[in-house]
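User: Please predict structures.

Assistant: First:
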Amino acid sequence: MNVDTALGRGRLTAIADGVYSLLLGRELPPDESSPLTLAIYAVVLLIMVIQTGGMVRTMFVLRRWRVQPERRPRGRMPLTRHVVVPAVTNVIWAGLALVVLPMVLGGSLAMLQLQIPDIAYR
């Protein structure tokens, strides 16, 4: 059931068609792959990798500041660059994922979890 999403309609029936073809001794039908679907998944994966890398980097920086307090930034600009900018970036990404993406795809987050579980749960 997980293969039938809004990004890949018809893949669920393609499984039955493939099994039926195998039982009849025919060639398997070609796998349908949409470049748009692959691009959406690639963008989501890239965003996740960038966000994860940023969080890991922030974790190491905060640990370093705790161990070496003399390396902590002093003043507004360095603190803004190291703390505020990453926090605002995370809030923007969360807003895009939780508010804008469902609106663009024409539904709510709950509907996305049913229609596009691969993207909604990330």
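Second:
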Amino acid sequence: MSAHDGIPKPMSVLALIALGVCLLSGCYSEFDRRAAEKAQDSVAIVETPDGWGSAVAFKVRGSDRTFFLTAKHVVENKGDLKIRVESHIRGFKSGHFEVPAQTVFISPGCDAAILTIPPVNWKFRGAKIERFLPRVGTEVYAVGNMHGANFDNTVSQGIVAQLGVRPQDVPNFPWSLVDQTTAINLPGSSGGPVFDRATGRLLGIQVGNMQSAVFLYLPSRVLLAKSHAEGWGWLFGDAPVPSEKQLQEFMAKVPKEAPTVIPIVTLSRPSTFTLIPNEPEPRKYKGLDPELKKGHR
């Protein structure tokens, strides 16, 4: 009997398959960790006089500034904004900075806004937007600052659960079209990114949930369509970046008055967005949940 006769051939094949599975699972685990860390590197806290939100960073060729995409309802009609960024090493906070932020543009057609800060010595990982329609079941990471700085840069994993949500039985639904994910989105997450886990591309920004169980995000296809129609496609590299003079002109036009306080109702409690009762057109989505005095809807 030779040395090779001691291991039957079928067993050796099974052993090789088992070894390969172990190695691959280790690689995927490492990939998951690195993908989650990369996702955190492009997210910031948006601080306003009324609470917090989230934002995702973009690097725009031709400008030294860093731009942030967030949800319109986080910053609309608010001044004294700040961008706060936490550094993480292996999941632990290792430092932070906080700088004043200015609103560059507020979309009239969707729940999106652009902020900017002066050049800073901080290594942001700029996001890249997804230009193709994802499939239901696509694995995602959602990153947000749930309830503000206490749970900043929280990473939630899930899938794309449904495309093109327009609930007909929900009165005054605040968005014309959103997608659904199973990745958790809680107060303070609004404006935070939803990334494709495999490609790292931005699938959209978080905007709210229903009954803390149905999590909704404004999809990239809506952001792209509105950016082209409204003239802010430069954020995604689809047009020349505005000059510094043009940016100053944009920022000067953004209203900063405090929003009018109106009665609000929620779909259920707790809920991460509010609905406005019937009022004369045009209706606008405003206000915070009175039970969560801090934390954007």
